[in-house]
């Protein structure tokens, strides 16, 4: 049997921050070529290994801060090569306090010819935001600086969030939204002195094709049935990669593999 090499795809790719537990990363690596983003000492310690603060991805590009890219050049070149993505560099400085830590934490929502970008204008990285807008995204301005962490796209024009502000604005803009109860998602040690179950849904999962893949068991969440129903309504299957409460590690970023 002769196989046309150009029609063969490499393994799909996942980019995830090292904040995720080894159990989650090991399960993800069984299906995906996994690239783990190391902590950035320029970010607050509690979220320094969160992928949604380290990179921004939309369309065929991956935006990375210059200083972080220089420290991890080989990793990003390998990841971009496996995913077929172009690397875009942002020179914007990062800081350890809000809003200087969350420039990349914007939620991209696919929706046919009119995708959306949910962001806080006070915190958004200029390069990443301009890339999204120039690519045709409709801007959805919210007060939540951690928009990518606070909401997750489950299908074209559909998101889940526990943030009432995001839900209200998203629905006004024509994005269908499921508002869930907060809590039940693990976020160790952040905020300092706070409970460990105050993570956000966007940081605990990622959309790949028609699967919403959770870093943990979504069935442990207070609104698990509503999440499943909402996903299935939009042709998406919620998937749990391991047992225990979902873990907020800054989201799972998935790409199809490239043709070999």
Q: Any overview of this molecule?
A:
Helices cover 23% and strands 25% of the residues. It has 8 helices and 15 strands. The protein is α/β, with parallel strands linked by helices and 260 residues long. A 3-stranded mixed sheet has the order 2-1-15, sandwiched between helices. A 3-stranded mixed sheet has the order 3-4-5, sandwiched between helices. Strand 12 and strand 13 form a beta hairpin. The longest helix has 11 residues, at 73-83.
SSE topology sketch:
Layout: E1 13-17, H1 22-29, E2 33-37, H2 51-54, E3 55-58, E4 61-65, H3 66-71, H4 73-83, E5 86-90, E6 107-109, E7 116-119, H5 126-134, E8 138-141, H6 147-150, E9 151-155, E10 158-161, H7 164-172, E11 176-179, E12 205-208, E13 211-214, H8 224-233, E14 237-240, E15 252-255
Parallel strand pairs: 1-2, 4-5, 7-8, 10-11, 13-14
Antiparallel strand pairs: 1-15, 3-4, 6-7, 9-10, 12-13
In quaternary terms, these chains amount to single chain
Q: Main sheet: which strands, in order across?
A: 2-1-15
The helix tally amounts to: 8
Tell me the structural class.
alpha/beta
Mean of pLDDT: 93
| Shape type | globular
Strand tally, please?
A: 15
Taking the sheet with the most strands, its summary is: 3 strands, mixed
Q: Which H/E pattern describes the elements?
A: EHEHEEHHEEEHEHEEHEEEHEE
């Amino acid at each position: 049997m002769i196989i046309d090499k150009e029609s063969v795809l490499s393994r799909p790719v996942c980019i995830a921050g090292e904040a995720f537990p080894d159990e989650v990363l090991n399960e993800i690596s069984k299906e995906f070529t996994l690239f783990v983003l190391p902590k950035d000492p320029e970010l607050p310690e509690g979220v320094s290994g969160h992928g949604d603060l380290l990179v921004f991805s939309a369309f065929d590009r991956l935006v990375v801060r210059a200083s972080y890219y220089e420290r991890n050049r080989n990793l990003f070149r390998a990841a971009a090569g496996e995913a077929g993505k172009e690397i875009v560099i942002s020179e914007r400085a990062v800081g350890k306090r809000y809003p200087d830590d969350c420039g990349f934490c914007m939620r991209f929502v696919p929706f046919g010819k009119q995708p959306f970008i949910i962001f806080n204008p006070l915190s958004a990285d200029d390069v990443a935001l301009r890339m999204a807008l120039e690519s045709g995204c409709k801007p959805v301005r919210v007060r939540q600086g951690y928009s990518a962490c606070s909401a997750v796209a489950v299908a074209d024009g559909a998101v889940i969030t526990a943030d009432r502000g995001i839900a209200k604005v998203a629905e006004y803009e024509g994005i269908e939204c499921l508002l869930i109860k907060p809590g039940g998602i693990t976020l160790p040690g952040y905020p300092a002195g706070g409970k460990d179950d105050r993570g956000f849904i966007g940081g605990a999962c990622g959309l790949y094709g028609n699967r919403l893949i959770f870093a943990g068991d979504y069935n442990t969440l207070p609104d698990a049935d509503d999440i499943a129903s909402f996903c299935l309504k939009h042709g998406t299957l919620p998937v749990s990669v391991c047992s225990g409460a979902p873990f907020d590690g800054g989201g799972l970023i998935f790409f199809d593999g490239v043709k070999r």
